[in-house]
Write a structure and sequence with these properties.
alpha+beta, 15 helices
Amino acid sequence: MNDSDERRAAAPDTSCPPWALREYAVLADGERGAVLDPRGRIVWLCAPRWHDDAVFSALIGGAGHFTVEPADPWHVWGGSYEEGTLIRISRWVTAGCVIECREALALPARTDRLVLLRRMRVERGEARLRLDLDPRPGFGEARMRDPRRDRRVWTAGAEGLRMRLAGAPDAVWQDGAGLCGEFRLREGETHDLVLELSQRPETGPLDADALWRATEREWRRAVPDCSRLVAPRDARHAYAVLHGLTSVSGGMVAAATTSLPERANSGRNYDYRYAWLRDQCYAGLAVAAHGPHPLVDDAVRFVAERVLADGDGVRPAYTVDGRPVGKERSLRLPGYPGGNDHVGNDAGAQFQLDTFGEALQLFAAAATHDRLTDEAERAAAVAVDVVERQWSKPEAGLWELEDRWWTHSRLSVVCGLRRMAGVLPGAAGRRCADLADTVLRETRRRCLRADGRWRRAEDDDGPEAALLVPMARGCAFGDGDGDAATRAYVESRLAEDGYLYRFEHPGVPLGEAEGAFLLCGFTMALATHRVGDRVGAFRWFERTRAACGPPGLFAEEYDVRQRQLRGNLPQAFVHAMMLECAVRLAGESTLP
């Protein structure tokens, strides 16, 4: 049997049918993320960390889920996050009752252990709730063994993973189906479930009250006040998302999921459970624009460690503990509808020059806040060395395409070198300034048109939204109004109905080739603000800000006609750029 036959033979878990991506919420604690559907099913969770195998993989057609839902199928759903947190309140309304379920991954998090909290409360009437817990490690391949109930706590285990569940002593373990049970709650009553998954046996109490208090306290510490920013609630939510995606190691994953398609049946679905250095720099720069918050230190530390360790061999992406990303491979699961199932990412082996430009901008921003560590200063020197050796060579660029002489990559490097020249004293600063001049001189020769507009690449005259990124950062490169001309050209060719696309696909209309790219929409807002068009900047910001689902989470792309999210979620760099817009459009930026 070949791979395609095995794929056709695989059957999805029909107990957890898929939803449109806009309906899913995400819980995260920095080390892993859980995807929650509106009916109360957790359908995705990797354990113990982001890049490890999923224990619940129903999202991509595998086995494993954790369901708490009204037993009455005749109900509607809704919910929201508590402001400035990733604590989710699911709300279900039946004919006779209103139920809320408060859910979170507990903080502070450990790398070898996760705790999932679910607290049910009946706001009105009397409710009957159904529990269904079916952990399936190894993306559904394995089962928990030796289930037993001891002192009202269920325990079970699989190779390398132990489970405990408190709060369901009357549930029944059914072979092949896991734990099944029901709860009856009267108006005003609450009931707690605490699920623990760890790499070694744990003996401490699973005290729901204590775990909730600690989690609430950590979120209050983690997310700063954003009341002076544009869209303050959304700005705090963006910060909470970035915090939830950032490990204790400092590494921030690009998204919590894998294999959610950017376009149905196109083969464009990837594993984003890794830390892209560029994305981490975007997030660090966005936070630094607001102030010297801990996520700036996290970004500086993780990026500096990778640059010092790998030099010219710096990869675009790593696991959050700094290891290389494995090659892409299939799990032979059905996948989310319209997609395939993939783990690993081949982009992890590319060379992307703009990564170094963004890293230098991050280090300069840290210096502005007096947060440039000795290690980061050494990493900046290494990054400058790499740029000096590599800037003239073709590379994969921001969109991870074929190796070419991409204009955006060189302008990103020039921006980073100029920023560092402004913070480094003496010869080190002069070296950065001189190298920036050298790179810009050759880039202008190859990529700047006679009318002052930038080409996409040395051999490509088309429009390119990536060129807006250095403009959004306040870096000017063209003659006179050349940068404004580039922005206007990008808008004229890549904008539709107030949304922005990355680049043109020959012979295919914009909205048919791919979704609007939300990073680009927010970047256009910043670039428009830089050229003095405040009304236009707010128009771009508000249009792009609306391209999320009810939980307020952004994916990478947005299908404008169908008003649907496309790709993995929550996409960290979109939330980062949204936060930077909220800061800069409010006039609150602490960076140039």
